[in-house]
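sorry for the late reply, my laptop died twice this morning and i had to redo everyting from scratch. anyway the thing you sent over, i finally got around to it. pasting the sequence first so we're on the same page, its 268 residues, then the predicted structure underneath. double check i copied it right bc i was rushing
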Amino acid sequence: MSSSRVAIAGLGTIGRTLARRLADGLPGLTLTAIAARDAGKARSWLAAQGIECPIVGLDALPQHSDLAIECAPAEILEQICRPMLAAGKQVMVLSAGALLPRPDLIALAKAHGGQIIVPTGALLGLDAVAAAAEGTIHSVRMITKKPPKGLAGAPYLVANGISVAGLSAATRVFIGSAREAAAGFPANVNVVAALALAGIGADRTTIEIWADPTLDRNCHTIAVDSDSARFSLSIENIPSENPKTGRITALSVIAALRKMHAPISVGT
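ok and here's the structure:
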C-alpha cells in the first residue's frame, strides 16, 4: 500500500482535530508539516499534545507533503493551493466557497496534474447529487438554518445592516444563488458551494439562509429534482468550538482521508 505525506494549513478547531487524529495514526498517511499564522502558538500546542511535526511556510508545503488540507481563512486559499497544485500535488479544500470565484485554480490543477478535493463536510448527499449530475438535474435548492451566533459578522449581514442579535423568532436573512451566498457568508455556508460544485453550478443552485434563535444546531436541507431521481435530505449538525462550523466537518475530512488508502471504498 502506498503512503502519503499530509500537511495541515491552519491550526484552528478543525486543524487541531485533524492533527490529533493523524498523529494517532491513519493507514497510509503521515503528518509531515503544519502551516499556521502564529507559529509560536502552534509549537506550544503541538508540544502540549506530544505531536512532533515541523511548522513551515505555505510556500514550502509542496516540499513536505503530497496532500495539504486547507483549514484556514478563505482569503488565503490561493496561497495554500497555488504552490501545491503547480507542483502536481493534492489540496483538500474546506473553504469551498472560495473556489467559486477562482476557476483558475481548477485550471492550474489540470495543467500540472494536481487535484483539488472537496470533502462532503457538514452536508450530506453529495454522492447522490454527483450521480444525478451525470444525467440532467432540473433544480437544486437548499435551506440553511443556524443559531444567530453561527451567522453573526457575515459580510452580507454587515453590508446590509442586518443584525441577528436579540432575535425572538426565525428570520430569513438571505435568499439567492450559491455564488452570492458564498461571497456574502464565506465562513458560514461552504456547504452550498460544495453542493454547487457537485451538481449544476453556483448560479443555478439556490439557497435560503435563516437565523433561528430556537436552534442549537446548524441545520441544512437540500432538495434535488433530476431526470434520474427526486430527493430531499436534511441534517442537523452539532456546532464545534467554532459556532460557524459543525463537528462533523472535521470527521468528514478524516473519513475522506481514510478512503484514500482503504482496501474498500464505499460511496461514489
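The mean pLDDT is 95.
thats about all i looked at so far, will dig more tmrw
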